[in-house]
Amino acid sequence: LPPPSILRRTNRITPKKLSSSLCAGVLCLNILVALFSFPVYARTSDDSKLIPFESLSDQAVFEEQSTDNPNQGTVLLDTHPQDLPKIDGKAFILYDALSENFLVGDDCDTPLAPASTTKVLSIILALELLNLDDIITVTRDMYDYIPEGYVVMGLVEGEEITVRDAIYASLMTSANDACSALAFQMGGSKEGFSDLMNKRAAELGCLNTHFTNPFGYSDPDHTTTVHDMALIMQKALEFDFFKEASTTRVYAIDPTNKYSDKRTLNNGNRFISTTTYSYDKYVAGKTGYTDLSGHTIVAAAESDGRTLIGVIFGASVSEIRYSNLIDLFEYGFETYTTTSNDESEYKTATEEVIMQINGKVSEYGLSITDTVLDLQPYITVRATRSVVGYSTSIDLTGAVADPTQSVQILTFPIIRRYSDGTTLLAGHFKATLSREATNANPSNDDKDSGKWIGTIQKVIIVLVLIIIALIALALFIRIQRRRKAMMNRKRTRIL
Questions:
Q1: Can you give the pLDDT at residue 439?
Q2: Residue 71's pLDDT is what?
Q3: pTM: predicted TM-score of the whole model, two decimal places
Q4: In this structure, how many other beta carbons lie within 10 angstroms of the beta carbon of residue 462?
Q5: Ranges of residues in the chain whose predicted pLDDT is under 70
Q6: Are 8 and 476 in contact (CB under 8 A)?
Q7: How many helices (H) and strands (E) in the chain?
Q8: What distance, in Å, lies between the first and last C-alpha atoms of the chain?
Q9: Angle subtended at Cα 245 by Cα 240 and Cα 250, rounded to the nearest 5 degrees
């Protein structure tokens, strides 16, 4: 046997060794705890896992109104202004085409017979689908269904007329046979063209329009609203030829293959044909009348870069619709102001909201990686309100972020709050939240692969640490046994 002194040197458990063993054990334990403490973002339907936001403002919560809900009805800037001029008619509306705000109105969503204002949509389609110099060869079915007493220019079977002349006749004298000829050229029949009209109306946002003919003869199923007619007129104003034809005082149609004389057209719109109702701000329009509809009118006026569209359905007297519409236009220009919406006004509000959102979501490994300021280009308010000033804010009330989503887009309303407490929607702030240290748009396969690789790595690390711990434990037990054996030998020699 080796000398006892050598045994003592070999098997002695010094304080340094004991300290090292304890540190190794504690380190292994911390690593294991850290591995199994990584946050797991499992998809869950539990609302308690969502991250809520609160508005920075202590003002009343802004309630955004959707313009896409047909059951909601027209949203008016002013519902019942006491200074509004009296309008004779079943329904009316005033629309700012620049800011796309409906300013004032009454029975805006009631379907009514529009009479010949229907032709505005027919002309829109003609300008979109036909060329002005195209030749239309008239067939009997183009005019046979027109009721007796309705205005016509006297087209006959086999007569050739240009699209240009047919549009002038439709808008200036409200010639129903000319409008029908355009319709059949596009749709092949009255029914076919009606389908085209209804489809185009829906595309323009007209949710309560159903047309059954191209020029507006009396039919209980042929209806629209003053709201929808304003949207139709807004589209018509995009065509310079529409404005030119509807404001021309006199136009001559050259002889055709069936008619040897010139046809002279005189504009029947009193805004153009009379001095009594002449209005220097008038841009374009169309009138109509049937026993079912009463007197109808849609028109546009411009002043200082602003375009207003007015619609009146069901006026009791022909002349009063002109004077009423002039009064309505003047009221709109004087009472309301429309200004551009400058992005710089929202810089402070945007910075504050970005800081607030990042502060909320950072503990979940999320952060804002992209923002979009989607503003209304123009905003219309009462002129008296615009001079008292306003504040801007982004309303986070009710919004939540989902910590289980790697990428998500949050949308918040941007509001102007005026000193009188009025709030207006100025646009939307959109923030993209993304998980940190991940690909911006990983595919599902990449996500699944990443999950498997991460899991395998964790399992390997855990196994290695377990093996190290077992080896350390075995060495410790072995040392303890040697120490015990050495102590027993010491007792034997003492005895």
A1: 42
A2: 55
A3: 0.76
A4: 14
A5: 1-49, 54-72, 437-458, 489-495
A6: no
A7: 13, 17
A8: 19
A9: 145
